[in-house]
User: What shape does this take?
Amino acid sequence: MTGRVTPRALTREFLEQLSGEKSEPAWMRAHRQRCLAVFEGLRMPRFGPDLSSLDFADLAYYARPVEPVKRWEDLPDEIRGTFQALRLPEAEQRALAGLGAQVDSEVVYRSMLDEVRAQEVIFTSMDTAVREHPWVQDYFMKAIPPEDNKFAALHGAVWSGGTFIWIPAGVEVTVPLQAYYRMQTEAVGQFEHTLIVAEPGSSVHYIEGCSAPRHSRAALHSGMVEIFAKEGAKVRFTTVQNWSKNVYNLNNKRALAHAGAAVDWVSGSLGSKVTMLYPTTVLLGPGARTENLAFTFAQEGMWLDSGARALHRAPETTSRLISRSVVQGSGKSVFRGTVHVSPLAKGSKAHVECSTLLLTPDAKTETIPILNAETDDVELGHEATVGRVSQDQLFYLMSRGLSQAQAMSLIVNGFVSPILKEIPLEYSIELRGLLEMSFEKAIG
Amino acid sequence: MSGKPILQGVDLALEPGRIHALMGPNGSGKSTLALSLAGQPGFAVTRGRASLDGEDILALAPHERARRGMFLAFQYPPEIEGVALKEFLRLACGERGQGFCEFHKSYPQAINQLRMEAFDGRELNVGFSGGEKKRAELLQLYLLRPKVALLDEPDSGVDVDALRLIASAIRDLALGGAAVLIITHYPRILEHVPPSDVFVLDEGRIVERGGPELADRIGEDGFEAVRR
Assistant: This one.
């Protein structure tokens, strides 16, 4: 499957061909076929955004417009220009322990610092990991089985590319590892799989960035992230997505946190036509904790349906789910914060907080908290606020010499700052820039 | 708003380097006058004019008035979450034409002068007590160096020590050439900052004007003394 292969029919034969081209072991061939059968038997999600204009018969399930290279210079001009504009080579030099870049279905570039390689960290493409490390099958789609939902099943059938990270016990990777996902081809589906296994006492920070040029036909991004944080491991997973407004961004992300482990999800969602994203942490061992910090910016015509789930399954576990949303134009943001505390999880604490700032009269928002505790010995907290930019605040700042656009941007930046300060600088600068640009457009 | 006329018959001039006081009972229209001059969009000026250095300011947006040297110290400054006081000041000073280096010299000086070391690193007015808000307003005033400073109840909610600091900062401001208008319904602050001109506002009109002795009279006999 070299060059541009873009089948639009989702068949057993296509999956067989995909497995063949990727030289996959038997377990993965069987896995793909099983997932397709599950996909065909499952219904579309019966909540959230309208997905009726997403046509499964009009998607390229595999596209490989660019061949993998060893050096940035060898990439075709258009792609290289894009990555340069995103300052990836610069970030690689300055601030990263390793970097992968994927275009459509395949990883086209990958690098890792020698120091990190010397720590015996594995940082490779998911395809390579499946071929080279048979034990990967003990983890692959074990946190999120295909039966979980239709898009998990679809992903399991057609997944391609993505990242595999293994951190040996006790190893701390002090500088972030990063992957960048670019959807290039029109009406493409991108299904990268990210699997992170952090052995006891290890720590890692992984960052993913996403973007796509604007096409008229709908494209689908349906990635999956599975994190296995073993005893005392620390994993931070940061995502910044700026998909174009023809992209359906329907992802599955789940972490299993063992005793004393900490898993943090940090996300900035600025793009896509529709997003459905509910990173979940299952707190499996005593003392495990999780934090979910989400910033969403829903603009004209977008529906960002996001949330976070914390499932407390062991004593003394802690979760904090915090969201800040800004909504503009006819955009809509929905936050679903779900906390479930099982009878075993005595002495646990959970806090859900969702604040929304509406910039325009048509902007819509909804907060749907579901807090359910099956033990009394638990501390649950929930806060939700919805507000508009106050005229008093605007006038106050303007009376100090700031223009309306400056004042607005200061207020909105202030509102989202509790989340943005958790996002690595390179991205938060980009996010603030994008915020400012859209205010200038809105205010004129 | 309700469309009710609040001010009618206000005629006053503020001179550079002088301290003026606008006194009047609660509800007489003092804050409305200050907010209208600063350009609060909730108030419509239907008649009359206001000028700064000969330029009509009523047609200007609030930030354009500020950039020409108007400043209003708010009676109730709003809290703005996530915005660092210092960052905000740097931005505002930039709009008043002060360079980056200049700000980085003047900021610590002002913080020191107003004994506001504890404010460094805080968010704009967030969680400030009433008195702290007044001092933060003064810090802004100090750094922005306006030509005209309208101070709406600068002493409400402040303790005696802070009052002294505020008073001395206001005197400095006038010495530096600013036209200062202190708005108050209570003469306490005027004992610390003696005004050269006093105006009394009642039911939207200037009903009396005079020198410092007018403030003393009101201090002794109340506003009844000047009502006709």
